[in-house]
């Protein structure tokens, strides 16, 4: 494959509306590939736990994320880590349909991850500290 010259580094360009609505949400989900995770959203950061496979029990995060409400109950979520190696993940979380979609560039050797999954359990802590569960 021919080498494509890269432009010089640029500043991030983030525009449009963002939301903090996911803060306090914890969701367990499974992709069609069999990978299972638990993601926890806090104010401006998220963490996720590997629930199976060779990385079972490993927690990643907290990492900064961005979220945008697409429609009622559906969110675009993304995060990028530039060091030590590039990671970029974009999710569409659809609570109404109980689905999660992922597209990502994963470390350590930049492999692509593109899948769909099922939300298995979702809980949310409201500002009063009460938790609501959804199957």
Tally of extended strands? 10
User: Structural class, judged by helices and strands?
Assistant: mainly beta
Termini gap: 46 Å
Low-confidence stretches: none
Which percent band covers the strand fraction? over 45%
Shape: globular
The largest pleated sheet is described as:
10 strands, antiparallel
Helix/strand order:
EEEEEEEEEE
Q: What is the count of helical runs?
A: 0
Query: Roughly how much helix do the residues carry, as a percent range?
Result: under 10%
Mean pLDDT: 90
Rg from Cα:
16 Å
Overview of this protein structure:
With 135 residues, the protein is mostly beta strands. It is 0% helix and 55% strand. It is built from no helices and 10 strands. Strands 1, 2, 3, 4, 5, 6, 7, 8, 9 and 10 form a 10-stranded antiparallel β-sheet that branches. It starts with 24 loop residues before the first strand and ends with a strand.
Short description:
The chain contains no helices and 10 strands. It has 135 residues and is mainly β. 0% of the residues lie in helices and 55% in strands.
Write the layout of secondary structure elements.
Layout: E1 25-31, E2 36-41, E3 45-50, E4 59-64, E5 66-71, E6 74-81, E7 87-94, E8 99-106, E9 111-125, E10 131-134
Antiparallel strand pairs: 1-2, 1-9, 2-3, 3-4, 5-6, 6-7, 7-8, 8-9, 9-10
List keywords for this structure.
about 140 residues, mainly beta
